[in-house]
Amino acid sequence: MIPQKKQTVKETEFLDEAIPHMDSLYSFARRLTGNPDDADDLLQDTYLKAYRFWDKYEKGTNIRAWLFRIMKNSFINRYRKETKEPETIDFDEIQDFYTKAKDTVDDNDDLGKKIFSGLLDDDVTRALDSLSPDFKTVVILCDIEGYTYEEIAEFIDTPIGTVRSRLHRGRKLLQSKLFKYAKEKGYLK
Questions:
Q1: pLDDT tens across 88-106, in order?
Q2: Whole-model pTM?
Q3: Please, what CATH class does the domain formed by 1-87+110-118 belong to?
């Protein structure tokens, strides 16, 4: 019989307070990254940082906002790092991609695909992805996830006026990017 390790107070508190928010954080990560694998990585990174800095969390404050802030900052840092690094391509990846593309079979059992397919048209998704992380975060949290301005302000640790400003500017950018799309789909006459 293998002896069980007893949980520390830190582990117990973290499990009780942080883990219940995993679904909403994953949903947000999925919308930020647009990719289930990247969303998983971002979620894992968020929880690792949260656990690592658990002693910095002020008990009794909004744990959800604290976790969203960690996720947003992780996403922005990763985005900035990727935009500064030149794109490199590994030959093995190309070979693997070619092999997989040749043998691709449509996986109808992928729940993520079923849930997110058709949710946003490709043009809308591309327009949303083209926004800077600050605008994209606020637009996703408000217009897709349905959070209030106050919740978003707390999540991203900015004044509510900044949230409103970013939301307004983000929507205007989307409007200009999607004008032709809206005419083609009959939303504008």
A1: 555 555 555 545 554 544 4
A2: 0.55
A3: mainly alpha
